[in-house]
Design a protein that fits this description.
Layout: E1 22-28, E2 33-38, E3 41-46, E4 49-50, E5 53-55, E6 66-67, E7 79-85, E8 88-93, E9 98-101, E10 105-106, E11 129-130, E12 144-147, E13 151-156, E14 161-169, E15 178-189
Antiparallel strand pairs: 1-2, 2-3, 3-6, 4-5, 5-10, 7-8, 8-9, 9-11, 12-13, 13-14, 14-15
Length: 191
């Protein structure tokens, strides 16, 4: 690994061969991992892990600068922003919907970890899923997303609402954390 106390340029002749126009980027984990979203795809590299838990993307070696295989209904040019944590990758789309990859995390935790998928699944998915309010209704009109280790958080400024979901979340209603039962987005709005 390259250790440096100074910032380093990331450019194509160093092996960072991406295409498209940069939309957003994120750094996360321990050791450091990175994600880059462009109009042509999403690239990941570095230590795609946190405290010994590794993301498992089907067919991807994440130690190298690698393009992710996105589902056909996830157009990378429609990504507005990304948020990444040890719990998963979250994409806010231009239409206000949210996609999550919570996939398998290896080491220290069960292999079928589904922390923040938000679609109601009770096992790890091998792909990105859309966050839902219920079995048939997608979460929409979102302006900001934040991925955490055990939960997802989304805000709709225009509707004055926020949403939480995950396997260990606070719902914002004064109750204790909800563990492994809150698998879709929970709405909270101002009075």
């Amino acid at each position: 690994p390259l250790y440096s106390s100074a910032a380093s340029d990331v450019y194509k002749r160093q092996g960072y061969n991406f295409t498209g126009t940069v939309i957003d980027a994120a750094a996360y984990g321990h050791p450091s991992g990175y994600a880059l979203a462009t109009t042509d795809g999403v690239w990941v590299w570095g230590g795609i892990e946190s405290w010994g838990r590794h993301f498992t993307f089907p067919g991807v070696s994440t130690k190298s600068f690698t393009k992710l295989n996105l589902p056909s209904d996830l157009d990378p040019s429609a990504i507005k922003s990304i948020s990444v944590s040890s719990g998963g990758f979250m994409f806010l789309m231009n239409d206000g919907s949210v996609y999550v990859f919570a996939g398998s995390l290896n080491g220290g935790l069960p292999a079928n970890r589904f922390n923040i998928n938000g679609s109601g699944l009770t096992a790890a998915s091998t792909n990105f899923t859309k966050v839902k309010l219920n079995a048939t209704t997608d979460l929409t009109n979102i302006d900001q997303v934040i991925a955490t280790h055990n939960a997802g958080f989304a805000v709709s400024f225009s509707q004055n609402k926020f949403y939480t979901w995950g396997t260990n979340v606070y719902l914002g209603n004064g109750t204790a954390t909800v563990s492994y039962t809150h698998l879709r987005a929970h709405e909270t709005e101002a009075d």
